[in-house]
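Case study: Dihydroorotate dehydrogenase.
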Amino acid sequence: MHEQMPAGVTITEIVEETPSIRTFVFDREIEARPGQFVMVWVPGVDEVPMALSSPFSITVQKVGDATAALFAMHEGDRIGVRGPYGNGFAVSGRTLAVGGGVGASPLLPLVTAGLVDTFLLGARTASELLFENRIRGAATLMVATDDGTAGHHGFVTELVSRVDLADFDHICVCGPEIMMTAVLAVLDREGCAERGLFSLHRYMKCGVGLCGSCCTDPHGLRVCRDGPVFSGDVLLDSEFGHYARDASGSRRRI
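Here is what the predicted structure looks like once written out:
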C-alpha cells in the first residue's frame, strides 16, 4: 500500500464488540507491527488516525463526526485507508499490557502474536470490556470495572499495584490519557518508567510527520512519526497528561 495515497477497501463485516464499540473488517490486508495505525478516510466527512486491531480491521468507538459516519455504514460500503504509520510496540521478554476502554484495540495484535503474558483490562462497566474472551484465551487476564460489575471494583490503574512490575521487561499501555498518566506515575515511583510503552492519541492531519499538528511539548516529537508509542521516561515532564491540541492548534486540557 502506498503510504501517501488512500486505498479503497470494502467493509466485509461489522462486529458489535460492546454497546459503544464496533470492529470494521475490510477486504485488504495491511501488514503492520502491533501498535501501528492507519489514516482512515470516511468519504465526505474526514480522515482520522485509527489503530489496527488486526491486519484486516479497525476497532472504533463512536466519539466524533468521522466515527459517527462509520457507525452509519453497512457491509459493502467503502472507505479509504493509508498507512501503516508510526513505530508500534517493540517488546521482548515478558510483557504486561494495560488497556482501558477502546485502548485495548492497538494492544490486541500483541496478544494475538502471543507476546503478552498478563493483561490488565478496564472499562466503565462489564458490557464495555473489549476483547475480554479473546484476551483470556491467550494471556493471564485481570479485569477492573468502574462500577464493579466485573472484576475489581475500581480503576484498572489500581490493578497495577497487584502485579510485580519486576517480573516484566515491558509494560504496554493504551487508553484514556488520564489513565495512562496514572500508570506512568506508578512506574516512575517504582523506578521503571523506561520500561513503559505508551500509545498516544493526538490530532493529526498528514500522518507522515510533515504538518506538525501532532508535535508534543517540550521536545517537538511528532506522534505520527516518532510515536505513537513512546517510552515512559520520554513522557515524564512533557505535555502528556496535561494538555493536547485541537484542529486549530489551541491547547485543551486532558
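For the exam, be able to explain this: The CA atoms of residues 11 and 26 lie 4 Å apart.
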